[in-house]
Every structure is written in C-alpha cells, then in structure tokens.
Amino acid sequence: MPKPKGAVIIDTERCKGCDLCVVACPTDCLELQKKEVNNRGYRFAHVIAPENCIGCASCALVCPDACIEVFKVMI
Amino acid sequence: MDIQDIIKPENKVYSSPRLLNDSTMHYCPGCSHGVVHKLVAEVIDEMGLEHNAIGIAPVGCAVFAYKYIDVDWIEAAHGRAPALATAAKRLNPDRLVFTYQGDGDFAAIGTAESIHAANRGENIAIIFINNGIYGMTGGQMAPTTLEGMKTATTPYGRNVELNGYPLDITKLLAQLDGTCYVTRQSVHKPAAVRQAKKAIRRAFENSVNRRGCSVVEILGTCSSGWKMTPHQSNLWMEEHMKEKYPVGDLKNIEE
Ligand SMILES: Cc1ncc(C[n+]2csc(CCOP(=O)(O)OP(=O)(O)O)c2C)c(N)n1
Ligand code: SF4
Ligand code: SF4
Ligand code: SF4
Q1: Cβ–Cβ of A65/B13 closer than 8 Å?
Q2: B143-146 contact pairs (CB < 8 A, 24+)
C-alpha cells in the first residue's frame, strides 16, 4: 500500500502565531517558536517533526493568513 | 525520502489562493475572517469569475476586504451592502455579485436592507460572518450575542429581560420566498472549512444563474472580543454558538 508523505513550507513573516495549524495537525508536526519571533513580533509556527507529515493540508486549510504551502507524494 | 524531493511544483496540493494578494490581512491572529476570505478567493478563481465578480464590502472588521481579494469591490455604508448589491446585480445581471458582512452590519444596523433584499429575491449571494459581537468597535453586544454571553456592553452576560433575545436572522430569512439557498456553516476545523467552501460555491452559482438570494452564514470567532485564544474561541464556538445556531442547510430550493 502506498503511503502519503508530505512537506509544508510556512511563510513565517506572514504568520501571526495563532496556533490553529498546530492544533489542526493530526500528526503533531508543528509548533510555535518558543523564543524566536518574526518581524511583527509573533512567535511563528515551524515544523518540528517533518518525518510525520502526511500532506493532509489540515494546517493550511485552517490557517487564516494563508501562510502554508503543502506538498504530497505517495511512496 | 528527502524533503527536497517532495517540495516540487508537481507535488503541490495546497497554496495560498491566487486571488488573495500579498498584503498581510489586518485581522487579529486566528480571526475567522481570514479563513473565509481564502474560501471566497478560491471559489471565484475556480469558477473563472476573476473579471466577472463584484464584492460589496461592509463596515466592520472586514471593511478592507477589497484590499485582500483581487476582484472588483464597492464599499458600502454600514449595513447597506445588500442595497448596493441589488444595484450592482441589476445593472450587471451576468456577474457574480456578493456581499461580505458581519453580524453587526447584517443583523443590526442593516436589518431592513438585509430582509428586503432577500425578500425581493435579489440574485445576490450574502456571506454573513456571525461572531456574536461587534468586533471592530471593541466587542459590544450584537443582536446575535448569546444569552449570558459577556461582551463590553454586557459585562455580566446578556440578560434577555434587559437586552432581548439573540436574533437568528438566518432562520428568519429562510422563510422568505425570495431566498433560494440558506445555510449555516463554520470554519473551525479542516472538514468544516471544506463544507463551507461548497456552500459558498453553491451560493455564488445561484447568483450567476439568477436563482434568487442566497445566504451563507458562517459561525466565526472573535478571539479579541471574546478574550480567549483562537483555539479556545473555536472550542467555545463549538460548544455554545452551535446550540443556538445549528450548522447545516436551512433551505435549498434545488433539492
Ligand atoms: C453608521 C455607523 N454606525 C456605527 C458605526 C460604528 N461601527 C463600526 S463597525 C461596527 C460593528 C461591526 O460589527 P460586525 O458587523 O459584527 O463586524 P465584525 O467587526 O465583528 O467583523 C460599528 C457599530 C459606523 N462605522 N457607522
Ligand atoms: S500537511 Fe497535515 S500532517 Fe503535514 S503539517 Fe500540515 S496538518 Fe500536519
Ligand atoms: S495557522 Fe497560520 S498564522 Fe496561525 S500559527 Fe499557523 S501558520 Fe501561523
Ligand atoms: S476584532 Fe475580532 S472580528 Fe475583528 S479582526 Fe479581531 S478577531 Fe477578527
């Protein structure tokens, strides 16, 4: 059975650190920065477990600021 | 497999909607307006209506919608978007004409315009964001505010004896002969976002095909006004708003 493997790119300067993508991700790939902030002062989202990503786009669908691009392959 | 082998144009499954332009939206972190803007931009693009869509922007937090979605827009006075949409659609009968309005705009100051445009069966689509509050002006009570809900003007919670009952205007509009499609959706979860997009698409098709007035209410959150985090707001919305404002189709004359 082919399995989905995904990757995301987050526009960290556009991100407002709302945390909704982190909550939406079913495989716990994402987290907000603990200390670092972007130019607007937001603790932006970043990928902590890229190997978990299945390319489901849940994070991107709920992101109010359209910060996330999603890629997916079947392997 | 290397990440770089996945990140290739042919493997892209989601990106920022083409018609959403680069200017950062002024909304607070986690605001539902952003999610709904993305859906409006995607649907217009998918329908090929980039040059044949006219949006009517409200007064409220979405007042700058015209700055974010790259189609033609007209800015209405507070609550008067359905009246402007009426004119725009009658003068441009082949175009998609939609309004984008908050609950203060649509269900308070604009009540007369909202009801009469719907009752006249104007061939417009109304996107109505119900966050139960006046977001832009600092979180005052709106007609849609739930019983017991704390706002800037009801610090002890909405008291029906003093403030009246929450207004389910969407249910009211479903009873009018002029509406063809009336639905309530939310955008707090990936599955809900997908459903809401289908509803917006149907409403936009109804406008283009002149089937009558469509109303798509979307239960939103206002974390600044509600004084919660965006995630807490979503949970609160799910627990409390859906009880008074159940999600689903209220009317669809196609079915
Ligand atoms: C004629 C007029 N009256 C009052 C106002 C003040 N005002 C601006 S936005 C707003 C309410 C907006 O609330 P809502 O439509 O729910 O939108 P939200 O900001 O929550 O998205 C009010 C009362 C105004 N701008 N114009
Ligand atoms: S695409 Fe799916 S699995 Fe990957 S980060 Fe986003 S939500 Fe998580
Ligand atoms: S949902 Fe979007 S804006 Fe919010 S933290 Fe994630 S990437 Fe940033
Ligand atoms: S005040 Fe509320 S409705 Fe307005 S942008 Fe902020 S969260 Fe959104």
Answers
A1: no
A2: B143/B103, B143/B107, B143/B108, B143/B111, B143/B167, B143/B169, B144/B103, B144/B107, B144/B168, B144/B169, B144/B245, B146/B240, B146/B241, B146/B244
